[in-house]
């Protein structure tokens, strides 16, 4: 294995599958199956999940809702997704802990870095919900923050495309994929890999980001094995 400890970032939209919203049980099962495979190989897995399939705080703010209120609602949406993933992974015999950036002790542990590290060392999958616990910070930034805190070797951002392109390949047939790209190029070209705060945090701490298509079974295993898939930002 190239990577012993990873932080896997999933968007809430990834859980929708072909639906217009909500959670597709088939997609959750597919993700859980892939996580189980790498966990059984000895990879320590931290996971950050978004909430865009249920609620997006920024879009709510643009329609007259208070931004802070909208972001808090978005954090709660991530917890719904985190609990769905926890259930699916545990059905496959893998011990899982949900840790929340907001206090909600009846459904999840409060996030404590040392406790998260111990869970990972004991082979448990740790799902970080509620983002950073603060408004104005995206789950991309939460992923970068948690990855640095738990000493992950890489942030793996799972998407439904196979990497970063020079332009949107759905709109520009001539777009080409980057196999590798620097943090500076991502920011200069505004490639929307992750938000600027997340990119800056990873760049400052020399933490690579791998953008890859997790909707293709086997890709997560290939990624932790160090095979050339997706786009590596470093």
Explain how this protein is built.
With 234 residues, the protein is α/β, with parallel strands linked by helices. It has one domain: Acetylglutamate kinase-like (Carbamate kinase, 3-Layer(aba) Sandwich). Helices cover 37% and strands 19% of the residues. It has a nine-stranded mixed β-sheet, sandwiched between helices. Helix 1 (25-40) links the parallel strand 1 and strand 2. The longest helix is centred in the middle third of the chain and has 24 residues, at 67-90. It starts with a strand and ends with a strand.
Question: What's this model, at a glance?
Answer:
The protein is an alpha/beta fold.
Features:
globular; single chain; alpha/beta; Carbamate kinase; 8 helices; nine-stranded mixed β-sheet; 37% helix; 234 residues; two-stranded antiparallel ribbon
Topology order in helix (H) and strand (E) letters: EHEHHEEHEHEEEEHHEHE
Portion of residues within helices: 25-40%
Q: Estimate what percentage of residues fall within beta strands.
A: 15-25%
Largest sheet: 9 strands, mixed
The count of domains is 1
CATH fold field value = Carbamate kinase
Regions with little confidence, pLDDT below 50 for 5+ residues? none
CATH superfamily: Acetylglutamate kinase-like
The class by helix and strand makeup works out as alpha/beta
- Under the CATH scheme, the architecture is 3-Layer(aba) Sandwich
CATH C-level class: Alpha Beta
Number of helices: 8
- What is the global morphology? globular
Strand order of the largest sheet: 4-3-5-2-1-6-10-11-9
Strand count: 11
- Overall mean confidence score, pLDDT: 92
């Amino acid at each position: 294995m190239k990577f012993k400890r990873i932080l896997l970032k999933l968007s809430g939209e990834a859980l929708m599958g072909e639906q217009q919203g909500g959670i597709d049980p088939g997609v959750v099962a597919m993700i859980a199956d892939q996580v189980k495979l790498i966990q059984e190989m000895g990879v320590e897995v931290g996971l950050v999940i978004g909430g865009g399939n249920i609620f997006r705080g920024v879009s709510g703010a643009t329609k007259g809702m208070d931004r802070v209120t909208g972001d808090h609602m978005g954090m709660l949406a991530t917890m719904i997704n985190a609990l769905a993933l926890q259930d699916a992974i545990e059905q496959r015999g893998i011990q899982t802990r949900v840790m929340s950036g907001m206090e909600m002790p009846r459904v999840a542990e409060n996030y404590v870095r040392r406790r998260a590290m111990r869970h990972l060392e004991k082979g448990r999958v740790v799902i970080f919900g509620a983002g950073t616990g603060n408004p104005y910070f995206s789950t991309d930034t939460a992923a970068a923050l948690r990855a640095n805190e738990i000493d992950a070797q890489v942030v793996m951002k799972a998407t439904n495309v196979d990497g970063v392109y020079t332009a949107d390949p759905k709109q520009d047939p001539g777009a080409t994929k980057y196999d590798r790209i620097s943090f500076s190029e991502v920011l200069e070209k505004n490639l929307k890999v992750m938000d600027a705060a997340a990119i800056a945090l990873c760049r400052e701490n020399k933490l690579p980001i791998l953008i890859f298509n997790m909707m293709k079974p086997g890709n997560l295993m290939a990624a932790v094995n160090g095979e050339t898939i997706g786009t590596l930002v470093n």
